[in-house]
Recover the amino acids of this structure.
């Protein structure tokens, strides 16, 4: 599950976010505890806690005292909105810039997309 490219706690947080976006973790569903993550992935509980704490800080998860952590009711939509914004900034704008650099008009890009959208 883990790679060497980013800290493990971030990878835990990103995995949970991906599960929320895909629907594998529904809103108001309980997530594994810090100790369950630590045992399942053989990592330090403090590392797992840091990943979960990040999601609490981002309000992707919420805590029920004495019960555990759960997916926030608006988490999926919040994550989708963040991904949409990132898509335009990190993917679409560089594509538009590259197209302009090599002489492809935006109309040609749109035509290409429309011609290939059903693939």
């Amino acid at each position: 599950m883990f790679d060497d490219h980013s800290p493990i706690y971030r990878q835990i947080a990103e995995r949970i976010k991906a599960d929320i976006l895909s629907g594998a973790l529904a809103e108001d569903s309980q997530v594994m505890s810090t100790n369950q993550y630590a045992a399942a992935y053989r990592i330090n509980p403090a590392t797992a806690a840091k990943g979960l704490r990040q999601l609490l800080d981002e309000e992707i998860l919420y805590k029920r005292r004495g019960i555990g952590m759960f997916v926030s009711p608006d988490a999926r939509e919040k994550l989708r909105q963040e991904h949409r914004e990132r898509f335009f900034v990190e993917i679409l704008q560089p594509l538009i810039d590259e197209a302009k650099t090599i002489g492809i008009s935006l109309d040609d890009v749109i035509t290409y997309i429309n011609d290939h959208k059903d693939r």
Notes: The chain has two domains: 8-73, 76-116. The CA atoms of residues 7 and 34 lie 16 Å apart.
